[in-house]
Design a protein that fits this description.
The complex is a heterodimer. Chain A is α/β, with parallel strands linked by helices. Chain A has ten helices and 13 strands. The chains are: A alpha/beta, B mainly alpha. At the A-B interface, helix 1, helix 6 and helix 9 of A face helix 6 and helix 8 of B.
């Protein structure tokens, strides 16, 4: 018993000894923090100085309750500076609370700053450990500041509609490319792969349109992908699926939904032959709309019609990307990953890619024609 | 084999994520990491087999008793101190890594003193537990943590963000000559059985090392080391993965649970990492403390029946740990831990030589 009391006393002693050190803890309460929900980076407008970037922070204002508020309110802080970090440090002095970046989910970049090497721009976001690597990187048109300031009509209190586009819990459309920060960094830095960012267009400061995308690589100018190209990229590379594949072949006009798409790439280099990329695409789907009556026994025929059209479109996309020297589908990575490593492999690929021939085969299977014939 | 022996071995394997080993491997991903890993699997399994079968011959006796019985003092004291140093440094590396991780990702505004102190207080009392209680703690932590580990690996392997082409690209670099540091640092993962030098005291029954046990250890070891190396590559890309200071944390941050209570799984994993590093530190420092205690036992600190030398040793450990954590930079952490792993073969050589000496002493 005596021993126990002694041990207890010792513990108490040690405890009180360490107590003062705990009060020095730098934890700040939630009411002393401002949560930044989005960051925008634009080129500086200048005004005579040689600043490089204009940084916009979108800060959420706390709301009392969801019942009493009908819409969100945000505060915006804007500053121009030579580097992103410097601008954000300056903006610390404009806010009375600690700017907390742990909830930041949007990084909007103006396409004008996306050409050339992005090393300096992206460095800060990865180097600072408190940004999540799961934040969505988007290209913002007309400018990052305007996109952040858009107030969509459908947005209710306590939600951020820009998140809903990308996190796959809200809208799921094959037109919306989702690129996380870690993915952006990984694909941008990998030789033989290009990164793709969604383009968010802010319209009338009350609407977002997300259906284009932009391909980036440090060595070439950015390449913009249109509606159809974005959709194909998203379906083939990211396996996203959904409504909206227009097929127009031999007098039939279908709209298909594809449930599953799977792409396999093989790079063949045989002596004396041109290098070929053999692309096999497997897709399963159904018809949503047609201009003619459809017969079940002719499903095979419709398969073929749709596959032909899709093959054509995919091949066109590959060739146009090839001519612009970008590689979002990762043919180069595939080439490097399927051969034993040698030092000259990368140079070989650089010589191969401009001459690469694409051999696309689509195996499309329509499961049904829908609820009517 | 007792189940506690498995815990000791597997703990070292799991805790490797919380050491500089993954980064040291990834730094050499282009030249010789993968082939070194494959070599280290062979070496590690061999090490485990030799160590375990040695200690199985002396049930219920730890290395200190064996040294005392079968060797002279001029062998015993330097060897004991050297071993104590090795185990102490293993704990220090985990401590520094954990503190750096917390300060970078979890609490960037908190003072480094507070973080280190809060870890060291727990570890202080953990180290002073009886060896048997340390083993029980290890068991409890294991049972609580295994579901989380299963969840983590399930999420890591099934996430669509894992780029398999990057992993394949890493595997194509298998045709490079093995690298020394990669070899030693990945062998460290298989050295959990060396903890037997103290904990063998509690393995009293005579056991045999079965083939099944060896196969289980090998399989899990292969899975975990390949995993520790390839998962960061799959999430962060092969070409620039060496730029990441904490490749595992940064890679795990790429995993999300859409409909979980929290979206970023990294916080669950951080909890897991920190718990594992706590228990790994306690296990390592407990060994170091027992070894030091076998050499020093100060008479001044004898108060009635209680000798307070253990408290002094644990306190000195904590003070040194605190001091090193505050002094160390990231460069120091990776640079000096590399030296530590590089001298592991010397440790193995001395370990095996003393084993031989003991065996000779025992048979004569």
């Amino acid at each position: 018993m005596k021993k126990r009391i002694k041990a207890g006393l010792l513990l108490l002693l040690v405890g009180t000894f360490f107590l003062p050190s705990l009060s020095g803890c730098a934890y700040k309460g939630v009411d002393k923090r401002s949560f930044v929900v989005g960051i925008g980076v634009d080129p500086a407008e200048g005004n005579g100085k040689d600043d490089k970037f204009k940084v916009t922070l979108k800060i959420a204002k706390p709301i009392a309750s969801l019942k009493s508020n009908t819409e969100n309110e945000y505060a915006y802080l804007v500053h121009e500076s030579d580097s992103v970090a410097e601008a954000m440090r300056y903006l610390d002095t404009e806010a009375d609370k600690v700017l907390d970046y742990s909830q930041t989910k949007i990084l909007a970049l103006n396409p004008e700053i996306l050409s050339g090497d992005l090393f300096q721009l992206m460095d800060y976001f990865v180097r600072r450990g408190d940004f999540q690597l799961l934040l969505y990187v988007v290209a913002a048109v007309p400018s990052a500041e305007e996109v952040l300031k858009v107030k969509p009509k459908l947005e209710s209190a306590g939600e951020n509609s820009l998140y809903n586009f990308f996190d796959e819990t809200g809208t799921e459309s094959p037109f919306v490319v989702t690129t996380f920060l870690f993915e952006f960094r990984r694909d941008y830095d990998t030789k033989g792969l290009s990164t793709v960012l969604p383009i968010v267009r802010g319209e009338d400061s009350s609407k977002f349109i997300v259906n284009h995308s932009i391909v980036l690589k440090d060595t070439v100018e950015p390449v913009e992908l249109g509606l159809l190209e974005t959709k194909l990229y998203n379906s083939l590379k990211k396996n996203s699926s959904g409504f909206g594949y227009q097929i127009d072949n031999e007098g039939y006009k279908f709209t298909l939904t594809l449930d599953r798409i799977n792409m396999k790439i093989k790079i063949q280099t045989k002596d004396g032959q041109k290098p070929r990329a053999v692309v096999r695409i497997k897709a399963v789907g159904a018809v949503n709309e047609s201009n003619k009556l459809l017969h079940l026994k002719e499903l095979g025929h419709y398969d073929r019609l749709s596959a032909e059209k899709l093959t054509e479109e995919v091949k066109e996309l590959f060739e146009s990307l090839q001519s612009k020297d970008v590689d979002p589908f990762g043919f180069g990575l595939k080439y490097r990953a399927t051969r034993l490593h040698t030092d000259s492999l990368l140079d070989e690929w650089k010589a191969i890619y401009p001459e690469l021939e694409f051999d696309v085969k689509v195996d499309l299977q329509l499961k049904s024609v829908g609820a009517i014939q | 084999m007792s189940r506690f022996l498995y815990y000791l071995i597997f703990m070292n394997m799991l805790a490797v994520i919380m050491t500089p080993v993954p980064r040291l491997l990834l730094l050499r991903s282009g030249d010789g990491a993968l082939s070194a890993i494959l070599l280290s699997i062979v070496a590690g399994v061999l090490f485990t087999y030799i160590t375990v079968s040695f200690f199985l011959q002396f049930p219920g006796q730890d290395f200190i008793q064996l040294l005392k019985k079968h060797t002279s003092n001029w062998v015993r004291i330097p060897v004991t101190l050297f071993f104590a140093f090795m185990w102490f440094v293993a704990g220090i590396i985990t401590l520094v890594m954990t503190v750096f991780l917390l300060i970078t990702f979890l609490t960037p505004e908190m003072s480094i003193y507070t973080i280190t102190l809060s870890i060291l207080i727990t570890v202080f009392f953990g180290v002073l537990l009886k060896s048997k209680s340390v083993l029980f703690t290890l068991e409890i932590v294991f049972i609580i943590m295994i579901p989380l580990f299963v969840l983590m690996f399930f999420k890591l392997f099934t996430s669509s963000e894992l780029d398999l082409d990057q992993v394949r690209l890493a595997i194509t670099h298998i045709n490079t000559l093995p690298d020394y540091t990669s070899f030693t640092s990945s062998t460290f993962m298989f050295m959990g059985s060396a903890n037997l030098i103290i904990y063998n005291k509690y393995f009293k029954e005579k056991h045999h090392i079965s083939k099944g046990a060896l196969v289980a250890i090998t399989c899990l070891g292969i899975f975990l080391i390949i995993n520790a190396y390839l998962i960061p590559i799959g999430y962060s890309g092969f070409d620039k993965v060496h730029q990441l200071m904490f490749p595992w944390t940064s890679s795990v941050d790429a995993v999300r649970m859409k409909f979980g209570f929290i979206e970023r799984v990294v916080f669950i994993f951080m909890f897991l990492f920190v718990t594992i590093s706590f228990i790994s530190m306690i296990v390592h420092w407990h060994v170091a403390y027992k070894l030091v205690l076998s050499v020093f036992r100060l008479k001044i600190l004898q108060v009635q029946q209680q000798n307070y030398t253990p408290f002094l040793i644990a306190f000195v450990f904590c003070v040194i740990g605190m001091w090193i954590t505050i002094q160390a930079t990231q460069y120091d952490l990776y640079h000096y831990s590399m030296y530590y792993y590089n001298i592991l073969p010397i440790f193995v050589a001395i370990f095996f030589l003393t084993m031989l000496a003991i065996k000779r002493g025992a048979s004569s």
